[in-house]
């Protein structure tokens, strides 16, 4: 009779197995079954497959690392397959009496499979209300009282369960996401051109750009003024916060005023004698910009060249250096390329990893590296693309052709490869005029569907997993 492996030796051998091999080993006998269910084996499988997976993403109680691995694997399979009724449930959710201008998830993006997971979004509308919706149930959770003016923008703080809205007059309000109670307000002197939510290590705050070109930094949740900076006098600006919340990019479109980068700490701790630390980038006629999500301070900007005839995408690395006068901003150009003359000027721009730029031009989705290498082009939509969602797993586009298109990343190559997977269809062209927005979290996709009568509804696609 051959000697049997002890528990420690068996555990060591099992540590080299993949998930399907562990599941097979569990069928051998009672001892193998017990060892194959060891917590550390499944924890390591999770960490190898999902590098961002941390203990904080686990829900205490019935969920184990094995359950997490199996459920998340099934969820990813369903989101990649996209089979109607088998993989997801589609629901049309109506309630607003006007057009939905913006939406954002208020539920955290943690993966949990203990029956308590929820996908919740908030929306603002021209009907003067902000509302919260349960995408799984397809129901409205709460609606605010009617506001004095149409609401035009919002941002959310999922960790704090707070929603911030602004109306067309410039009135900013904070709402509690659980019940819709109003908790604070702040009046800008003019209407707002941009809002950015920043969850900084020193505390959450809000950035608001006003139409007269000023940048306001406000505390959350009380909306107390921390600083006010004049960026582009009498020019409305757009704002982009860096992934590490250390930098703010501000620009005004198609202007000879060059975009600016602000050091975040100087906005949070302003000096009475000195202006916040900032620098102007040496470009003009800026049209679009985005941060590289995998780099703390890599910025890609689309702009016109010196003669104004060609569109250029330039990539910068930002840094801060302490000096006698405080902090100096270091800007290094690391790449630049000219877009093809045959390409219509892109109206959407997003970054992926540290090297890939996604551009939307009309109904076409095009991928370049930061050095200008053309990676792929997709023409899956029949009408112009209206919005684009990008994360580590997938890309989703919405279009006036009443469809959402789902793409998946394959990261085995030198540069990530994007694969077109399937369409998610909206309603009838008789009643609807197309999708205007799309967002996603780990378990759902939601689009704003514009109706021909001047209102909007939400159309949610909720992906479910089978639990043991």
UniProtKB/TrEMBL annotation:
Pathway membership: Protein modification; protein ubiquitination
| Keyword Cell cycle carried by entry | no
**Which segments does the entry list as coiled coil?**
none
Keyword Hydrolase present in the record's keywords: the answer is: no
- Where does the F-box domain start and stop, copy by copy? 10-48
Instruction: Give the top-rank taxon of the lineage listed in the UniProt record for this protein.
Output: Eukaryota
Q: Which SUPFAM superfamilies match?
A: F-box domain, WD40 repeat-like
The residues bearing each WD repeat, given as ranges, are 93-143
Keywords attached to this entry:
Repeat, Ubl conjugation pathway, WD repeat
Pfam families listed in its UniProt record: F-box-like
* Cross-referenced InterPro entries: F-box-like_dom_sf, F-box_dom, F-box_SCF_Substrate_Recog, WD40/YVTN_repeat-like_dom_sf, WD40_repeat_CS, WD40_repeat_dom_sf, WD40_rpt
Any GO CC annotation of this UniProt entry: cytoplasm
Q: Which PANTHER family match?
A: EXPRESSED SEQUENCE C85627-RELATED (PTHR46550:SF2), F-BOX ONLY PROTEIN 3 (PTHR46550)
| UniProt protein name | F-box domain-containing protein
């Amino acid at each position: 009779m051959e000697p049997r492996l002890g528990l420690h030796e068996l555990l060591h051998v099992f540590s080299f197995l993949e998930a399907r091999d562990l599941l097979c080993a569990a069928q051998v006998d009672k001892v193998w079954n017990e060892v194959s269910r060891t917590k550390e084996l499944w924890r390591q499988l999770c960490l190898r497959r999902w590098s961002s997976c941390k203990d904080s993403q686990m829900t205490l109680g019935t969920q184990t690392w094995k359950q997490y691995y199996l459920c998340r694997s099934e969820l990813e399979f369903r989101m990649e397959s996209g089979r109607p009724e088998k993989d997801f449930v589609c629901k049309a959710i109506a309630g607003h009496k006007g057009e939905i201008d913006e939406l954002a998830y208020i539920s955290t993006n943690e993966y949990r499979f203990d029956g308590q997971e929820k996908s919740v979004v908030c929306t603002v509308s021209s009907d003067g209300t902000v509302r919260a919706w349960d995408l799984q149930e397809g129901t409205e959770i709460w609606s605010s009282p009617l506001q004095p003016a149409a609401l035009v923008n919002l941002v959310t703080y999922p960790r704090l369960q707070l929603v911030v809205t602004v109306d067309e007059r410039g009135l900013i309000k904070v709402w509690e996401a659980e019940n819709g109670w109003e908790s604070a307000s702040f009046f800008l002197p003019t209407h707002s051109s941009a809002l950015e939510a920043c969850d900084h290590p020193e505390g959450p705050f809000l950035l608001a750009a006003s139409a007269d070109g000023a940048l306001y930094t406000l505390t959350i949740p009380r909306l107390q003024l921390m600083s006010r900076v004049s960026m582009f006098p009498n020019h409305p600006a757009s704002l982009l916060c860096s992934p590490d919340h250390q930098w703010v990019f501000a620009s005004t479109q198609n202007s000879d005023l060059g975009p600016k980068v602000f050091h975040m700490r100087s906005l949070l701790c302003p000096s009475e004698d000195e202006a916040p630390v900032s620098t102007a980038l040496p470009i003009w006629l800026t049209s679009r910009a985005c941060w590289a999500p995998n780099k703390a301070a890599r910025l890609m900007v689309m702009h016109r060249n010196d003669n104004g005839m060609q569109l250029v995408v330039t990539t910068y690395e930002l840094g801060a250096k302490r000096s006698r006068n405080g902090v100096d901003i270091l800007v290094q150009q690391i790449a630049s390329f000219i877009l093809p003359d045959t390409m219509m000027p892109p109206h959407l721009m997003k970054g992926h990893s540290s090297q890939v730029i996604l551009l939307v031009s009309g109904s076409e989705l095009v991928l370049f590296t930061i050095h200008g290498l053309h990676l792929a082009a997709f023409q899956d939509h029949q009408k112009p693309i209206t919005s684009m969602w990008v994360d580590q797993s997938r890309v989703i586009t919405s279009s006036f052709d009443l469809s959402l298109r789902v793409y998946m990343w394959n990261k085995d190559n030198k540069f990530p490869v994007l694969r077109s997977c399937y369409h998610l269809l909206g309603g009838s062209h008789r009643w609807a005029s197309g999708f205007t927005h799309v967002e996603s979290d780990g378990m759902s996709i939601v689009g704003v569907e514009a109706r021909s009568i001047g209102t909007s509804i939400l159309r949610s696609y909720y992906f479910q997993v089978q639990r043991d």
